[in-house]
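User: Good morning. I'm curious how guanosine-5'-triphosphate would be positioned relative to this chain. Could you predict the structure with it bound?
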Amino acid sequence: MEGGMNPEIPAFAVVGRVNAGKSATLATLLEIDDDELLRISATPGETTEVQPLPVVYDGQEWLRFLDTPGFQQPVEAMREIQRMAGSGVPGPAEIARFVKECRDKFPDEARLLEPLAAGAGVIYVVDPCKPLRDSFLAEIEILRWTGRPRLALLNPQGEAVPELEREWRDRLGTAFNLVRTFDAHEARYEERRRLLEALLQIEEHHAGHIRRVIDAMANEMDARREEAAEAILEFLESALTLRVSEPVEARDRSVPGRLEKKKAELEARYFKKLAGLEEECVKRLLKVYRHHLIAPDVDPARHSGLDLAMAETWQKWGLNRWQLAAAGAMAGGAAGAVFDLGVGVHSLGAGTVIGAVSGGTAAFFKGSALPRLKIRTGGLELVRGEDKAMVAGPPESANFAWVLLDSMLIRHAGILARAHGRRDRGVLEVAELASRVREFPSERRTLLQKWFASCLKGSPDRGKEPEVFAELVKALAEGG
Ligand SMILES: Nc1nc2c(ncn2[C@@H]2O[C@H](COP(=O)(O)OP(=O)(O)OP(=O)(O)O)[C@@H](O)[C@H]2O)c(=O)[nH]1
Ligand SMILES: [Mg+2]
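Assistant: Good morning! Here's the predicted structure, ligand included:
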């Protein structure tokens, strides 16, 4: 397998200047967020060997990408190849000779051209924010001489400069079969699919293989959406049915303040458990979409200022009052509960930043602004034999379930928007994303409201589950 190639399998080598974002492009395209598998770094010359990245579905390799070291001395390499051609125009024969004979003098160029000489197609990555210097023109010339199918990708690493980009496009247009934009830090599923379709356009010979990968990717996205819907459904059910209890003894009633203290402890336990369920769900979503560098974020430092943002949180997500009223009425819910937003609504200045969206719904329910829990005490429940118990259930707010759902849908959208080529650890950037449930069609709201009500009562309506699941899948597809 010369140069990491097998003639049966279409191969594309990703080439370009050091630091152009070649590895990042492949990482995003193939969803690899692990530096152990694919190194991305601000240090130029990070990739020093050709690295084959096979695309395998159903145990079979359908397509192969090759990450390559960057061009280091393109102008000198171009002159060398021209010298080999003498008075003629250089072509694939000179490229092959260069690969064989110039390893010592041009180790990087020889390595990156080797797979092209062996038959791989070209994906040339450039940063269109950089001026189009002679050294880039030399790279473009060399790649043209390979005679291989060629796709150029503009991967902007900074602020776009329209005149520069036009210059790049004009020049690349003369030497490449296609020119496309692929932002390695921003591209999502749709852009990844378009990149593969571009390969289909430039390399008709292997169309079947490439199409197979495009289809497999689409099927996989559908399957993931279903897994995500299942995770969210299970989260909602466990969160809405969550109850915590605490035994109550005779002296709890006789010593003043003691019951109140117990209530407060009980509330704290409830919200901690809720946060745990939430974290578990976000972890599942991250896993479904193959993200390892993002934490579900439960860092309390990120949540400061949240208590204040509480009212805005309830207003920003979930349904608004009228939507709640409508959903509640249609679902046969108690209209009286509808106007209870669960918190003292204090007005906040416009533009208050809700820093903790990424932090979790748990953060919404914190400190003095905790919504009131339904707490029942005094002989209503029997726990462990004769002990009387105090039971804390869901917050009284009619919007509780909607806020939980919205927070998961928003995170799901944030996960889809996160490119695997990024290597910064961190949390999802979802603060700017708007409420999803407010856009739901009314039949969906009614269905969910009914199911929520059954969960809140502690007896989830299993008969409705398949429908709820189907609606969640639809909602996730709309949010993608
Ligand atoms: N802002 C931004 N930075 C990017 C983008 N693509 C790559 N980078 C950054 O650019 C640097 C180089 O990225 P790599 O993917 O390692 O580049 P490379 O072309 O593989 O580099 P070598 O292997 O050294 O030739 C890294 O710090 C990346 O995070 C992008 O689309 N946007
Ligand atoms: Mg690299």
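Residues 78 and 138 are 6 Å apart (CA to CA). Confidence is low (pLDDT under 50) at residues 298-310, 333-370, 378-386.
Let me know if you'd like a different ligand tried.
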